[in-house]
Amino acid sequence: MIFSSLKLRGSALALAVLALAGCSFIPTYERPAAPVAADWPGAVPGSAAGSPAAAEIAWSDFVTDARLRELIGLAIQNNRDLRVAVLNIEQVRAQYQIRRADRFPTLNLAATGNRQSSTDDSITSVYTAGLAMSSWELDFFGRVASLKEVALAQYLASEEARKAAQTSLVASVASTWLSLQASDELLALTQRTLATRQDSLRLTKLRFDNGAASALDLRQAESLTAAAESALAQQQRQRALDLNALTLLVGQPLPASLADPASEAVTTQPLFREVPAGLPSDLLTRRADIRQAEQQLIGANANIGAARAAFFPRISLTASVGTASSALSDLFKDGSWGFTLAPQALLPIFDAGRNQAGLASAKAGREIAVAQYEKAIQSAFREVADALAGRATLGEQLRAQQAQATAEAERFRLAELRYRNGVASFLDVLDAQRSLFATQQALTQTRLVQQQNQVALYKALGGGY
């Protein structure tokens, strides 16, 4: 009967220990509501439902130009910022493994020797050898488990940070390559314009020398030629800057075949695949930076559990098993083996408000993480909305500027023809030259903005990895 009672008490004690071991003070996590509209501005509600997400389109499928795909591939292999992001994952993974190891005891092989004089001038010796376990915390209240969850969330956040870094890298390489392409096009345009103005200057000087043109016509022709020379130097500098930026992103000197995007003629083939906008709710699961912010929020939430557990007793266990002897030669003889077991429980009584301040700090940290998570969603919503606004209007702007450039080219041809036939003044020719050059520059810049907007939309929707 007594044995049954002891067995029952032992079982109850074991169940109590198991219950305490499974205790956790981490608040139940609930994802905050997205502080954005259910659909994009100007979109018909529900019109994007069922569309595939942009994140499902790999960057190699989004980019249709073979040279640009090769550049992006080189950048992913060699870019130093992306390499740091990958190494950060390894560092945080190691920190998580350290926290996970805290839940298990650490065994050490220990050997000690102690010689001490006594009051009767004799010397006593004690030698020990064996296995030792020091201060293993029995995590009854989930403090160590909460810290492990914090480390796990930080590790997962570092994974998302790497994906976000790759997304930014893909977009940066594409945008910079487009800028280099536009710089080449503007450089060729400026060179053609300069050649035209130099021809016009020679003709005007010849007419001036023969009394058929005024000094004003000559000075205006010289001014336009000098302006074209200045623009040429500016475009050469801009191209060099774009090339340097692209080289930095790629992380190595550019291959000769990739350093010069074909700019002799504007290709009619699209450089990028069209991507669907989807729904704003897709961003919560598709954009790496939002997922990173959510993992940081989960970690801040778990940190509250560790702060709460600090109010409860911290139970640790120190133990050893081995052999002990007063003589080193007798250390491993029979009868010298034994063990020690020293549990310790510490209950905070007075800490000058340290634990309370730790809990307040953890709660404030969670509120900060909530605000950062919501800000990440709002920023993503704005980026997508801006890119969609550009997609809706830049196409029409490009068509209008193309029509304007065609009209200005015809106007310049007619003005030059009228001037050579003595019907119009040279001022009309100069004005037509300036307008044509400005319109062609604006056309190239608008085409660049439209292509970069396609890249920005793909990035904003969570693509790029």
From TrEMBL:
Alphabetical list of Gene3D superfamilies matching this protein: Outer membrane efflux proteins (OEP)
Compartment(s) of residence: Cell membrane
Name of the molecule in the record: RND efflux system outer membrane lipoprotein NodT
Domain of life from the UniProt record: Bacteria
Topological type in the membrane: Lipid-anchor
Entry keyword annotation includes Signal: yes
Family: Belongs to the outer membrane factor (OMF) (TC 1.B.17) family.
